[in-house]
Amino acid sequence: MKYWNLKKINKSALDKTGIIPRSISKLFEKFRKELDPNAEIEALEEFKVSRYQTVSSVKYLLFLLIMPILVNQLSKSFIFEPCVNYFWNDSDHGVFLNISQEERAFAELQRFEEKLHFDILVGKISNSSPYFIDNEIKQKALDLASKYALESSSAIKNILADLLSSAIFVSILTINKRQFSILKLFINQLIYGLSDTAKAFLIILLTDMFVGFHSPHGWEIIIEVILRHFGLPESRDFIFVFISTFPVILDTVFKYWIFRYLNRISPSAVATYHNMNE
Predict the structure, then answer these.
(1) How far apart are the first and last CA of the chain?
(2) In whole angstroms, how far apart are CA 45 and each of 2, 38, 40, 49, 264?
(3) Higher model confidence: residue 106 or residue 91?
(4) Is residue 10 part of a domain?
(5) CA-CA distance, 149 to 270, in Å (whole number)?
(6) What phi and psi values does residue 128 have, to the nearest 5 degrees?
(7) Whole-number pLDDT of residue 278
(8) Least C-beta-crowded within 10 Å: which of 34, 93, 139, 258?
(9) Residue 160 to residue 164: CA distance in whole angstroms
(10) Each residue of 53-74: pLDDT tens digit?
């Protein structure tokens, strides 16, 4: 199977528009195949290649997704966690990696203190001695210090594990280029084989999800999670600048793809998209 020309089998999904409409050219191509004495053999070969392409693409895609995740989790648990914990506990370090962690810790401590005073005032806690209050606040501060020290060390582990898994991901793509080419052909065939309505629906869904009027709230949450994952400061200025620029760039890419590729390959899908979007 390694000598089969997979591009030839799947090139119909990516044919360029010529002088003759594609519907007419496909009609003549259909007649030519039906009159061809070797049509049955070619159809059987195309089926075998298509089945091989599908199975190979699914296996490669699963391997491409599972292997980096597996490497990430195993390396974090058995390699980076013992090393980081050893150096983190052995050296003299602060509790926080950035000012955002400090602000969150101080806010939690302040809320705890306010709740403690409120519970004393409403009678939920009978002991109102200064010693009891100071002891509770001190215990909460120690808990927060332990919590954010663990978060700081986890951020370092995340950086190291993510770098390793990214290197594994790139290595898989680089080493097995043929499988990656088969996967691209399979995805192209899958996307361009959809009906015009399905294509338009997916385009509207993706554009509204990532560049729609409500997308900034989602992007804000995603950026905050990513920054916290790597132990980076959650700068509001950076988040707002990202939200104001990246969706615009993404929207431009979507429109360029529609104009440059989809409009050439499937004009009816573009027309359906415009009708559904109005």
Answers:
(1) 47
(2) 13, 11, 9, 6, 29
(3) 106
(4) no
(5) 53
(6) -115, 20
(7) 63
(8) 34
(9) 6
(10) 889 999 999 999 999 999 999 9
φ/ψ of residue 5, rounded to 5: -90, 95
DSSP state of 38: T
Residue 16 in this model has a pLDDT that exceeds 60 = no
For residue 108, what is the enclosing H or E element? helix 99-122
Q: Can you tell me the distance from the alpha carbon of 225 to that of 217, in angstroms, rounded to the nearest whole number?
A: 13
Residue 95 per-residue DSSP state:
S
Rg (C-alpha) for the chain, rounded Å, is 29
Amino acid symbol at 16 = K
- In this prediction the pTM is 0.78
In the block, tokens 């280029």 appear at: 177
Q: Distance between CA atoms of 250 and 211, rounded to whole angstroms?
A: 7
Which two three-digit tokens encode residue 232?
Answer: 């980076």
Please report, for residues 201, 208, 227, 242, 261, the alpha-carbon distance to residue 215 in angstroms, rounded to integers and kept in the order given: 18, 7, 18, 12, 25
Is residue 147 in a domain?
no
Q: Are 239 and 221 in contact (CB under 8 A)?
A: no
- Residue 257 in domain: yes
Statement: residue 120 has pLDDT above 90: yes
